[in-house]
Design brief:
The protein is α/β, with parallel strands linked by helices. It is built from 12 helices and 8 strands. Helices cover 45% and strands 12% of the residues.
């Protein structure tokens, strides 16, 4: 099974909050519209960047319906459904209405620190339950365990509806090995802005980006240059955006990207505990980074 919609720039959408901590659905609409107008290729709802672990079920449903409504069929949609309790994730996959979504992004189990066999069995159970194609998500810095290339390849071979991986290990040696190990037709997507272009140059098909929702035109151009083999042009954009890629993660995600939205007047900078809003010092540095791009944004 292939999903050509996954080529290019995906956006891991934030969930904006009002000053009282409630959902700011109008701001979410502005973020979706900003991303679409900036030329991104698809949207990811309720990933880790969306602070999904701090949202109540009814809040998640409001976020989903708001994104579906504002997108209005313009771009493919991916939904994040994952966790470290396999049976509960299976139950959620079975009971959720996924008709508006093209694929499910599911993070490798966190905190439990399963073995590679445990990771394999987890995803095999999800694949058997899911009515939609699944994108694996490897992010060792958050989960505490690293899904190795041979495990990914095994899942890809045994589970036909597991079609891709969002790889955020941050290690280009592992990413190269991954691309060379997985079966033909299985997609490797960068899970880090900083590795987007290098991953594409090695054979990846794009990125699921955080920065792209704040700077959609610039990140989309970077990715298009890479996919077109225009590596020098891509490298120039990469170097220009690299400080921002670093800055937005310095005090945790999504505090940094929400600081960009505040500067652009699109949404507030608030996050939910245990995360905290970006410090004034970081906001000042982000503002200095954004200033040369402000007109284009």
């Amino acid at each position: 099974m292939k999903l050509e919609q996954l080529y290019g720039t995906g956006v891991a959408l934030v969930t904006p909050f009002a000053t009282d901590g409630s959902l700011d659905l109008q701001a979410l609409r502005r973020i979706v519209r900003h991303s679409i107008n900036g030329g991104v290729d698809y949207l990811v709802v309720l990933g880790t960047t969306g602070e999904s672990v701090t949202l109540e079920p009814q809040e998640k449903e409001k976020v989903i319906q708001t994104v579906i409504s504002e997108n209005d069929g313009a771009l493919p949609l991916v939904i994040g459904i994952g966790g470290n309790h396999t049976a509960k994730v299976v139950e959620e996959l079975k009971k959720s209405d996924l008709s508006a979504f093209d694929a499910v992004l599911s993070v490798s189990p966190y905190y439990n620190k399963p073995t590679q066999e445990g990771i394999y069995r987890h995803y095999k159970a999800l694949a058997e339950a899911s009515p939609k194609p699944i994108i694996l998500y490897n992010v060792p810095g958050r989960t505490g365990s690293n899904m190795l290339p041979e495990t990914v390849a095994r899942i890809a071979r045994d589970c036909p509806n597991v079609v891709a991986i969002k790889e955020a290990c941050g290690n280009m040696d592992q990413i190269r090995e991954l691309i060379n190990t997985v079966p033909s037709g299985f997609y490797v997507i960068s899970g880090d802005d900083i590795t987007a272009l290098p991953t594409i140059m090695e054979g990846g098909i794009g990125v699921i980006s955080v920065l792209a929702q704040g700077m959609p035109a610039q990140m989309s151009r970077l990715v298009r240059h890479g996919l077109n083999g225009e590596y020098e042009s891509g490298k120039q954009i990469h170097e220009a955006l690299k400080p921002g890629m670093d800055l937005i993660f310095q005090e945790g995600n999504p505090a940094g990207i929400k600081a960009i939205f505040e500067l652009l007047g699109i949404a507030g900078a608030g996050v939910r505990l245990p995360l905290v809003e970006a410090s004034p010092a970081l906001k000042s540095r982000i503002a200095a980074f954004i200033e040369p791009f402000a007109i284009a944004i």
